[in-house]
Write a structure and sequence with these properties.
By secondary structure, this protein is α+β, with helices and mostly antiparallel strands. The protein has three domains: 112 residues, DNA ligase, ATP-dependent, N-terminal domain (DNA ligase i, domain 1), CATH 1.10.3260.10; 196 residues, D-amino Acid Aminotransferase, Chain A, domain 1 (2-Layer Sandwich); 155 residues, Beta Barrel (OB fold (Dihydrolipoamide Acetyltransferase, E2P)), CATH 2.40.50. The protein is 40% helix and 21% strand. The chain has 21 helices and 23 strands. It binds adenosine-5'-triphosphate.
């Protein structure tokens, strides 16, 4: 069994390294020491969660609770804790400092295992309702009181969601491969398994207890969400057809909430684009999945959007988003009914359809939806003609939709990856990139002039480089914010400020404040240009200078300040920026 202190020591080392290879090495050592029964917990703890995120288990521990627990455990006053926190800016370090100075005797002489700490954390998370705050404080204080200083650092950071290890899921997958085989060659298999269950702990446990064969045979299961397939972009109908080998399906593209629906008998769960359980938000769709879908066991996917029963028209996203609420859900379901336009099927009646070609999946989808009302298959055509594709695109746009998604008739469902088996073509606006970009905030600037009031001046934004599992800067962002958005950003960002550049950020520019990569914003820009200031896609040019990519005239778009349905790893990637750069050149040539 691994002692928590050992894990904490590994974390301490991890925090200090920025080389990815070194991180993989350290993490694989940790995994090697773990028993099959505890590797799952180690993975969750390292991810900063209690269970796979789709289970929605929250710690319910705010900074105030953590601060009180530290005071109780160390015998210091709340004021002492706050004073130290002001210096460190991190309650974990404060816990570490005060535990090492505390005159109270360590509560227990035996050192807890990882599983002891984990089960206490589960208890903390499960305590709810009246008196739960005090109970959480007590439980957390007990843990801190029996910890060494370095253990205390992570025991406090973990439930606050602030581990700061700089370790992404991709790096953990490689570490698992190294643990098992001594090199990184199993990463692809592991990634595939992860993409179809979204549960990294489970993948680690299967590998450790049953070996690589179990990972290769890994299959979908109901109530474990599949990481969604994503679409590439191409600028013209001709290019899409050519890429698809001369023939493809073309589906209308609906702008609402992506829903992955899992049904077994009378139980239905709906997962979001980000694989969060959102069943409660869609009682009408869940009911329809039971009543209207003929298959008893099924996983399928579609876009839910508001629909006007009288005119038969879909409503824009600004209307649909009103369904995103915590209260009055059933009233809103009546006044603003949704339709689910289903576009894929991954499992039905005990059989996985993941490896079946699109056309087969589609036929099964239409079969299980036969006669349904609320849930309909997406509208589509199959074509060999660029003209027909373009006409279908134009008619979709004039129906108020976003555009189309073209689909390769022969392709399997490719979970968790952006591949050319799906290609989107969206309405474009003149003089602008045709699509918005989703950027990760890695830093921000103090305001000048009228903006100083709440200290906010703009953002430093990055894209995700999948290969390096790191965030590369691509743009500063200073326009498009409403006052409320600035205030919100200021609130959110001040909580995740970092003293120095976070481990997973690659940047030449120094913002006023660094922040942990956590929030994603949607940005529109006119153009992608080359720039020596940004690290996105940075490479050496013919003349020997270094150049990356950046955005021209970037501005924030969207109703909300940050995009909640995307994690930093799901933001626009470096690869996409480079592709978009290539495409815009082509468009310009063909415009002439
Ligand atoms: P992405 O999901 O590709 O990261 P995004 O969330 O910004 O990007 P878009 O770029 O607008 O979304 O396009 C992809 C999304 O389009 C899908 O995630 C899905 O929710 C939606 N969509 C709507 N209609 C369809 C359809 N017929 N087939 C596939 N996806 C569709």
């Amino acid at each position: 069994m691994v002692k928590f202190e050992k894990l904490a020591e590994y974390y301490g080392v991890l925090e200090g390294v920025s080389s990815r290879l070194k991180m993989i090495e350290i993490m694989s050592e940790t995994f090697k020491e773990a028993e099959p029964s505890e590797i799952e917990q180690i993975v969750y703890i390292t991810q900063g969660v209690l269970a796979p995120p789709f289970e929605g288990k929250e710690f319910g521990v705010a900074e105030k609770i953590a601060a009180e627990a530290i005071a109780l455990a160390t015998g210091y006053t709340k004021e002492d804790v706050e004073a130290d926190f002001r210096k460190t800016g991190d309650l974990g370090s404060t816990a570490e400092n005060l535990v090492s100075k505390s005159k109270l005797k360590r509560m227990s002489s035996s050192k807890p295992n990882v599983s002891d700490v984990y089960s206490s954390m589960v208890k903390i998370s499960e305590s709810s309702g009246k008196g739960s705050k005090d109970q959480k404080i007590k439980l957390l204080a007990n843990l801190v009181a029996s910890s060494s200083p370095v253990e205390a650092r992570y025991i406090i950071r973990y439930p606050l969601g602030q581990l700061r290890l700089g370790l992404g899921d991709a790096t953990m997958l490689e570490a698992l491969s190294v643990m098992y085989k001594g090199d990184r060659t199993l990463k692809e298999h592991l990634e595939r398994a992860y993409n179809i269950c979204s549960d990294l702990g489970l993948v680690a446990k299967e590998l450790k207890s049953k070996g690589i064969k179990a990972i290769e045979d890994f299959s979908v299961s109901i109530f474990k969400p599949i990481r969604p397939a994503l679409a590439e972009r191409l600028p013209t109908a001709e290019e899409i057809l050519e890429k698809m080998g001369g023939e493809c399906a073309v589906e209308q593209k609906y702008d609402g909430f992506r829903c992955q629906i899992h049904k077994m008998g009378k139980r239905v769960e709906i997962y979001s684009r980000r694989l969060e359980r959102t069943t409660d938000m869609f009682p009408d769709i869940a009911a329809a999945a039971i009543k209207e879908v003929s298959s008893k066991e099924v996983i399928f996917e579609g876009e839910a959007l508001a629909y006007n029963d009288v005119t038969g028209e879909f409503m824009p996203f600004q209307e649909t988003i009103q369904r995103k609420r915590k209260h009055g859900i059933s009233e809103k379901a009546v006044s603003l009914p949704l339709r689910l336009m289903a576009f894929d099927l991954m499992f039905a009646e005990g059989k996985s359809y993941m490896n079946e070609p699109y056309e087969q999946r589609r036929q099964k989808l239409e079969q299980v939806l036969n006669g349904s009302e609320t849930i309909k298959p997406s509208k589509r055509i199959i074509t060999r003609s660029a003209k027909e594709l373009e006409d279908f695109f134009n008619s979709s746009v004039s129906d108020g939709l976003e555009g189309i998604v073209a689909k390769d008739l022969k392709s399997p469902y490719i979970a968790g990856a952006r591949k050319f088996s799906w290609i989107k073509l969206k309405r474009s606006y003149q003089g602008e990139l045709s699509d918005t970009l989703d950027l990760v905030i890695v830093g921000y600037y103090r305001g000048k002039g009228s903006r100083t009031e709440f200290g906010f001046g703009g953002l430093l934004c990055a894209v995700y480089n999948e290969k390096r599992d790191i965030f590369e800067t691509v743009s500063k962002l200073g326009t498009g914010f409403t006052e409320a958005q600035m205030q919100e950003l200021n609130n959110l960002l001040s909580k995740i400020e970092q003293k120095s550049k976070p481990a997973r950020v690659d940047s030449i520019i120094e913002p006023d404040f660094w922040v942990y990569p956590k929030y994603v914003v949607t940005v529109k820009a006119d153009e992608i240009t080359k720039s020596p200031m940004h690290t996105c896609g940075m490479s050496i040019q013919e003349d020997g200078s270094k150049s990356g990519y950046s955005l021209r005239f970037p501005r924030l778009v969207g109703e909300t300040a940050v995009r909640e349905d995307k994690s930093p790893e799901e933001a626009t990637t470096t690869k996409e920026i480079i592709e978009l750069f290539g495409q815009q050149k082509k468009v310009r040539v063909s415009d002439r």
